[in-house]
TrEMBL record:
Residues 1-89 form the HTH arsR-type domain. The keyword DNA-binding applies. Pfam families: AHSA1, HTH_20. PANTHER family: TRANSCRIPTIONAL REGULATORY PROTEIN. The keyword Cell wall biogenesis/degradation does not apply. Belongs to the AHA1 family. It comes from Paenibacillus germinis. The lineage of its organism: Bacteria, Bacillati, Bacillota, Bacilli, Bacillales. This is Metalloregulator ArsR/SmtB family transcription factor. InterPro entries: ArsR-like_HTH (IPR011991), ASHA1/2-like_C (IPR013538), HTH_ArsR_DNA-bd_dom (IPR001845), START-like_dom_sf (IPR023393), WH-like_DNA-bd_sf (IPR036388), WH_DNA-bd_sf (IPR036390). Keywords: DNA-binding. It comes from the Bacteria.
């Protein structure tokens, strides 16, 4: 996989495509052809190489095929070759960051999407998300509290008994789906913001036995920009920590 990433990053045109998606995610082939003085076929060839290296992902929306940046493999390269060594959570991590998906009416709906593969069952993942004894080991030391019923509240409390986040359970279908509103009442920049929404999708991998794909979507944050900034940086670390906990039994280390 490292070789594919290095190969993909070696070409300046492909680096330009990544820069374009970093600036504005969820772009069509026509959008990406315009800044490059290159044929559609040439751009498609570069996009295919980037997708094979997992540096971009695509999604069909209506008749359009949209391209999204997946920056986590670059982070993996940094961890493996720039920092001391890769941390355990880097294995099999895939993430879709800063994803903006257009609705069929073409109105832009911002969302952040993170995805990770974990060697665990959906039931084990569900327990990790909902058990305070487990969340305290990967969610910034915060224990989650809720009775896990539709319409009930949930709260995240740190070891100092300070509530950092809360919300309402909007939809729950163990062990495959959990939808919750989200607020950060503990921080001055976010306390007055409107609730946003987090959706957990938990599915067995279609090809790898014993592997679960966990997708976390944060959206409806048009009136919660500061909340979005915190979760954009924090959710990948939460997912990485959950992966490490479930696969090794240990908390994610900063060493």
């Amino acid at each position: 996989m490292d070789n594919d990433i290095f190969k993909a990053l070696a070409d300046p045109s492909r680096r330009t495509l990544l820069d374009l998606l970093h600036a504005t995610d969820g772009r069509t082939l026509n959008d990406l052809c315009t800044p490059l003085q290159m044929s559609r076929f040439g751009v498609m060839k570069h996009l295919n190489i980037l997708e094979e290296a997992n540096l971009i992902t695509t999604r069909k929306v209506g008749r359009e095929k949209l391209h999204y940046l997946n920056s986590v493999p670059i982070r993996q390269i940094y961890d493996r070759w720039v920092s001391k060594y890769a941390e355990p959570w880097a294995i099999e991590l895939t993430s879709l960051k800063n994803e903006l998906e257009r609705e069929t009416n073409m109105e832009n709906k911002p969302r952040h999407v993170n995805r990770i593969a974990i060697k665990a069952t959906p039931e084990q993942v569900w327990q990790a998300i909902t058990d305070p004894a487990k969340t305290s080991k990967f969610w910034y030391n915060c224990a989650i509290r809720s009775n896990w019923e539709i319409g009930s509240s949930f709260e995240l409390w740190n070891p100092e008994e300070k509530k950092l986040a809360d919300g309402i359970i909007l939809e729950i279908s163990p062990p495959h789906k959990l939808v919750m509103s989200w607020q950060f009442p503990a921080f001055p920049d976010t306390a007055s913001e409107s609730p946003s929404r987090i959706t957990w999708e938990i599915d067995s991998h279609t090809e790898l036995v014993g592997v679960t794909l966990v997708t976390v979507v944060h959206d409806e944050f048009e009136q919660a920009i500061n909340t979005a900034k915190i979760l954009e940086m924090g959710l990948p670390i939460v997912l990485s920590g959950m992966k490490t906990l479930l696969e090794t039994g240990s908390a994610l280390s900063n060493d």
